[in-house]
Inverse folding.
């Protein structure tokens, strides 16, 4: 009877680890793909590491971010409604309030977001977080 329990525990752990591998393989590296699509919804992508575009899951695996420095506080509030910080701090592309159109080529140094017919060019910078 103890052998059956041990075998069952071993079988369950193999199954759990194999499922984890498959799920991680389904998450794509955002930097490796091109986009020219409209992203619908509300809020932003800023919550969580994994986000969806066109029903596919992505993650920013590399140590780079796409940022934009706003020209003034009004522009910042346009991109992030309710923002109270001043316009000297950068905006990360995932903070921009949805919906918007995203244009990006794979492994590109820029990402373009078009929101209400206004175009914003986000530049790739090395992430300074450890």
């Amino acid at each position: 009877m103890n052998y059956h329990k041990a075998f069952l525990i071993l079988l369950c752990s193999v199954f759990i680890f194999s499922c984890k591998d498959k799920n991680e393989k389904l998450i794509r590296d955002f930097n490796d793909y091109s986009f020219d699509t409209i992203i619908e919804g509300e809020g932003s992508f800023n919550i969580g590491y994994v986000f969806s575009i066109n029903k596919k899951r992505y993650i920013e695996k590399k140590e780079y971010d796409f940022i934009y420095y706003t020209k003034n506080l009004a522009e910042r509030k346009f991109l992030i409604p309710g923002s109270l910080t001043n316009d000297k701090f950068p905006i990360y592309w995932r903070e921009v309030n949805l919906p918007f159109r995203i244009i990006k080529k794979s492994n590109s140094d820029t990402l373009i977001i078009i929101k209400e017919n206004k175009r914003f060019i986000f530049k790739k910078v090395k992430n300074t977080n450890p």
